[in-house]
Amino acid sequence: MKILITGTAGFIGHNLAKKLLERGDEVIGLDNINDYYDISLKYGRLEDTGISQKEIEYGKLTQSSIYPNYKFIKLNLEDREQLEKLFKDEKFTDVCNLAAQAGVRYSLENPHEYIQSNIVGFMNILECCRHNNVKALSYASSSSVYGLNKEQPFSTEHNVDHPISIYAATKKSNELMAHTYSHLFKLPTTGLRFFTVYGPWGRPDMAPFLFTKAIINDKPINVFNNGKMERDFTYIDDITEGVMRVIDNPQSTKTPYKIYNIGNNAPVKLMDFIETLEEKIGKTAEKNMMDMQPGDVYSTYADTSELIKDMGYKPKTPLKEGISEFIDWYQKFY
Questions:
Q1: Where in the chain does DSSP place strands (E)?
Q2: 205 closest CA partner among 122, 293, 74
C-alpha cells in the first residue's frame, strides 16, 4: 500500500502517519503548515516523524530521518498543478484526506479560507484520485454537520441539512462531492464524521488544550453556555484505529459511497470534563461562565453502530486515561 495522507502536520494526520509507518506502509505526507495556530506545534509533529524543519521546501519531497518509507511535501491543496504532478509521479494506491481549514468559531470571521481549502482543495483531491487510478479515498468530515439536529445519538441516517457554521457547511459539501464522484466514476469514498478528538499533540484551539494551559498557568477558563454542554470526547488513538480500519476495508465499486461516525458513543458533560482535568493537574480552575457562542451546538453524541457492524471496532479509551496521557504530553512538550 502506498498512501497519501494530507494534513500530516495536523493532529489526526500526524498520529495516523506514525501508526501506518510503524506497521510498514509507504506514506507520503502533505501539509501547507498554515498559521491558523502555532506552527511550532506543527513542526514539532513533523520532527516527531523525522521531518526536519530546515529541509522543508514548498513543492519538494523531504525524506524522513526516522522512517525510510516516509516522505513529506509542503503543498496547498488549492495548488492544482503541483498536486496533479504529485499524483502522477507517486502513483498512490490510497488517499486519506485529513487536510482542511479547521475550527468552527474561526469560520465566522474568515469564511473564504474555508471555501478555498475545504471546497476547492477537496475538488482537486477528487479529480486527482479519479484520473490516477487511486483504489479508494477516505476523508475527514465532522460531527458539526449535524448542526441543529435535535435527535440523539446522531446517526448517519439523519438529515444533515441544517449546518450552523460555514465550516460545517463545507464538510457537508465534501460529503456531497464525494457522493457525486462515487456515483459517476465508481470511486470508492468513505467519509469520517469525527467527534471531539483529544490527546497528545492535540490542537491548541480546542477545549482540552485551552483549559489545560489556563489551569496550569493559573488563568481563568471560558465556560460557554454556563457549562451546560456535552461533547462526545474521543481519544486520538481510538480515532486513528477507526481510520485505519476504514483504509484497510475500503468500499467496493459496487457500493462505492459510505459515511461513518467515529466517536466514543458516550457524551461527557462539560463540567465533568473540567473536573477530570482539575483532578489530574491538581488545581481548581477559575471559571468565566459565559453565554453560548454562535456556531456552537449544545451536545454531540455519536451513533457508532455502523462502524461497529462493518469494521468490528469501537473506541475504548476511558476519559481519565486519555486526559492523563494528554496532560503528561503537554507538560513534557511545553
A1: 2-6, 26-31, 61-63, 70-74, 94-97, 136-142, 189-194, 197-198, 221-223, 230-231, 234-235, 257-262, 268-269, 287-289
A2: 293
* pLDDT tens by residue, 232-259: 899 999 999 999 999 999 888 888 999 9
The catalytic residues are 167
Cell match 459510505: residue?
258
pLDDT tens digits, one per residue of 207-216:
899 999 999 9
For the chain, the average pLDDT equals 93
Q: Answer whether 147's CB lies under 8 Å from 112's CB.
A: no
CB 144 within 8 A of CB 152: no
Cell of 39: 506552527
* The pLDDT of residue 295 is above 70: no
Spatial distance between the Cα atoms of 234 and 212, rounded to a whole number of angstroms: 17
Give yes or no for a contact between 37 and 15, defined as CB atoms under 8 angstroms apart: no
* Burial class of residue 294, CB neighbours in 10 A (0-12, 13-18, 19+): exposed
Residue 105 in this model has a pLDDT that exceeds 80: no
Q: What interhelical angle do 121-131 and 166-185 show, nearest 10?
A: 20
DSSP state of 179: H
Contact 47, 57 (CB under 8 A): no
Residues 162-188: tens digit of each pLDDT: 888 899 999 999 999 999 999 999 999
Q: Is the peptide bond before 188 cis (omega within 30 degrees of 0)?
A: no
Residue-level pLDDT at 183: 96
Q: Tell me how far apart the alpha carbons of residues 93 and 136 are, in angstroms, rounded to a whole number.
A: 7
**What span, in angstroms and rounded, lies between the C-alpha atoms of 172 and 123?**
13
Residue partners of 145: CB distance under 8 A and separation at least 6: 160, 163, 168, 171, 172, 175, 193
Residue 225, pLDDT above cutoff 90: no
SS3 181: helix
d(CA 16, CA 4): 11
Cα–Cα nearest to 279, from 324, 217, 316: 324
